[in-house]
Every structure is written in C-alpha cells, then in structure tokens.
Design brief:
The chain contains four helices and no strands. The chain has about 100 residues and is mostly helical. Helix 1 (about 1-10) packs across helix 4, helix 2 (about 20-40) packs antiparallel against helix 3 and helix 2 (about 20-40) runs antiparallel to helix 4 (about 80-95). It is flat and about 50 Å long. About 5% of the residues are buried.
C-alpha cells in the first residue's frame, strides 16, 4: 500500500492533468505561479507591495530558501522547496525493492 501512495505522489494520479503524479503536477503549477509572479514584479505600475511579495514567490517556491543561513537549502523546517520534495521522493522510490 505504501508503494501505491508513493506512486501517486511521484508517478501518476487519476485526478491530475495528464494523470501525472501529485509532485510533478505541483512542480508544473509552481512554475506557472513563479512566471506570473515574475511578470507582476516587472510591472512598474503595480504597487510596491506586489513587487515585494512577488520576488520571494518566484525565487523560493521551487528551490526553497536558506532560512538558517548555513549556505545550503535542506529539508529542515522552513527551508525545503519543491526541489527538495522531488529529491526525497526519488530516494523513496529507490527503496521500493527493499524488504
């Protein structure tokens, strides 16, 4: 049962676009959000608050953020982005054949 759930997250889920996994679907949606945030940040007629908040959405959603300032983004609280989730999912998938 665990492998089925891992498969839903990593590979395929019936209710996502193109029946892709939940994580790839999230990555695709995050890229769209990041694109829109970057476009909003480029519009000089928008409010300063939009620029302030659009930047972190474009730059932190996918890669994460070095919250503890140790020079790397990890899976620690407040740091992990979708790239870390994807890396951990791949590690779990490699363990599928283990007893």
């Amino acid at each position: 049962m665990v492998h089925a759930h891992i498969g839903h997250v990593a590979d395929s889920f019936k209710d996502t676009p193109n029946q892709q996994g939940l994580l790839p679907a999230s990555m695709a949606e995050a890229k769209v959000a990041a694109t829109h945030a970057a476009l909003a940040a480029k519009n000089t007629t928008d409010l300063a608050a939009m620029k302030l908040h659009a930047g972190p959405v474009a730059s932190q959603l996918i890669p994460g953020v070095d919250a503890n300032k140790d020079g790397r983004v990890s899976w620690e609280a407040g740091e992990g982005g979708l790239e870390q989730a994807q890396a951990h999912m791949q590690l779990m998938k490699k363990g599928e054949g283990l007893p």
